[in-house]
Amino acid sequence: MSAQKFKAPRGTFDVLPEQEAVRRRVVEVARRQLEAAGFGRLDTPIFEETDLFARGVGESTDIVQKQMFTFTDQGGRSLTLRPEATASVCRAYLEHGMQTLAQPVKLWTEGPFFRHERPQAGRYRQFTQVNAESIGSDAPLVDAELILLAGDIVRELGVEGVRLRLGSLGTPRARAAYLDELRTYLRSREDELSDEVRGRIDANPLRAFDADHEGTRKVMEDAPTLMDRLDPADSEHFAEVRSLLDRNGVSYEIDPTLVRGLDYYTRTLFEFDCERLGAQSGIGGGGRYDGLIEQLGGPATPGCGWALGLDRIALALEGQARGGGPAEEPADLFIVADDSERERALSLATELRRAGLSADLDLAGRGIKGQMKQADRIGARHALILSGESTATLRDMTSGEEREVDLATVAETLSAP
Ligand code: AMP
C-alpha cells in the first residue's frame, strides 16, 4: 500500500461546508438581480475546442499563450478547459441562432474557470466567476445597465471599499493607429523597459501599462494614451455611458491606462477593485466586445459583458466584521434514540424530511448523553427523544423546556409558527 498523501492540485482548493453559505449568497444575489433585469441563465460546457479560445480570447494574450489547460481527447481533438466565459457564450449565441431573437440577448452564467497562473492569495488555477453578457446592441445604455448591475450586486452583498475604474479602448481602427504610435514611443525608450515588455512591443504593447517593473512604469507615465486618440463616435459613446452612470449616482474614476488581459475588447472597459484585498484586488471587470462574434465566424454583432470573481468577493466578505451573510440555518430537530430505536429514528427522520423539516440523527452509536451533546453541537432547535411507541419527548434546546408530543403530529407541531 502506498503511503502517499494526496492534496488538492496546486492552485486549487476545497470549499468546506462552513464556507459555502457566503458563496451561495453571492450567486443568489447575482441571480436575483440579473434575472429581475431580464438576464436568462445559460450554462456552457466546462471545455471547448481550443480554437474557440485562441480566436476568441486572442492569440497574443497571456491567457492563450501561457495559461490554458489544453489536452487532446481520445479522438485526437484539442480541447481546453474554459479560461473565461465570453467566447463560450458568444459561441452558444451563434450556435443556437440567437441573432433571430429580440436584441440584445441578455445571458448570465456562473461556474468554474481555469487558468494556469502562478498561484497566490486570491489567484487560483480553478476559480469561480459570475458572468453577465448582453449581446446584439451597441447602445451605451447596455454598457451602463451592466455596470449598474455589477455595482448593485456588489453593494447588496455588502463588499466594502469597492472602487470602479472606467476607460475606453475605442474601435479597432483607432486602436491600431494608437498602437503604432505607442510602439514607436516604446522603441524610443527601449533600454529603460523590462525584458518582458521589450519582447512584446510588437505583439502586445498595451501590456506595458500593466507592468510592475520600475523603469517601465516611469516610461509609461509619459506614454500617449488611447483615451486621447479616440474617434469622435467612440468619444461620444463613452461620454454617454459616463452620463448614464452619473445620472444613476455611480462614482467611478477614469483610468486612461486601463488594459485587460483579453484581446477582444472595444470601447468601454471597466474594473471593480476592493481595497481590502491585497495584490489581487480585482473583484470583477468587463467591457464591450463589438468585434468578437464576427471573429468567431458570425455576422457583425456588438456585445458587452462582465465577470465577477466569486472567490475574491467571498474572501473580501469573510475578512469583514459582518462576515457577509447568515450562517447555515440550524436544524429543526435532532432525533435522540437508544439502541433499540435507531432504525425507527431513521424512518422518522425520513418522514419529517419528506414533510419539509430538517431533521438529523445519530449515526455513530453514541449513548443518549452523547446524542444530546451532538444535538447541541449542530445547533438543533429541538431534540426529539424517542421513548414510547407513539409518543416522544420534545426538548426545546434553548429554553430546556420539555413536553410530550404525539409522533403522528410532530411534523405539524414543529411547522406551526
Ligand atoms: P477576467 O476574466 O480576467 O476579466 O477576470 C474577472 C474577474 O475574475 C477578476 O476581477 C477576478 O476577480 C476573477 N479572476 C480572474 N482570474 C482569477 C484567478 N486566477 N483566480 C481568482 N479569481 C480570478
Topology record:
Elements: H1 17-36, E1 40-41, E2 47-49, H2 50-57, H3 62-67, E3 70-72, E4 78-81, H4 86-95, E5 105-114, E6 126-135, H5 140-157, E7 162-168, H6 172-188, H7 195-199, H8 214-221, H9 232-247, E8 253-254, E9 266-274, E10 282-288, H10 292-295, E11 303-309, H11 310-318, E12 333-336, H12 342-354, E13 359-361, H13 368-377, E14 382-386, E15 391-396, E16 402-406, H14 410-415
Parallel strand pairs: 1-5, 7-8, 12-13, 12-14
Antiparallel strand pairs: 2-4, 3-4, 5-6, 6-11, 7-9, 9-10, 10-11, 14-15, 15-16
Helix pairs in contact: 1-5, 1-11, 2-4, 5-9
The structure holds adenosine monophosphate (AMP).
Structure characterization notes:
- This protein has 417 residues and is of the alpha+beta class.
- The chain is 36% helix and 21% strand.
- It is built from 14 helices and 16 strands.
- It has helices at residues 17-36, 50-57, 62-67, 86-95, 140-157, 172-188, 195-199, 214-221, 232-247, 292-295, 310-318, 342-354, 368-377, 410-415; strands at residues 40-41, 47-49, 70-72, 78-81, 105-114, 126-135, 162-168, 253-254, 266-274, 282-288, 303-309, 333-336, 359-361, 382-386, 391-396, 402-406.
- The strands form 3 sheets. An 8-stranded mixed beta sheet has the order 1-5-6-11-10-9-7-8, sandwiched between helices. The chain has a 5-stranded mixed beta sheet with strand order 13-12-14-15-16, sandwiched between helices.
- The longest helix has 20 residues, at 17-36.
- It is elongated and about 90 Å long.
- The termini are far apart.
- The mean pLDDT is 92.
- Adenosine monophosphate is lined by residues 84, 115, 117, 123-124, 127, 129, 260-261, 282-285, 307, 309, 311-312.
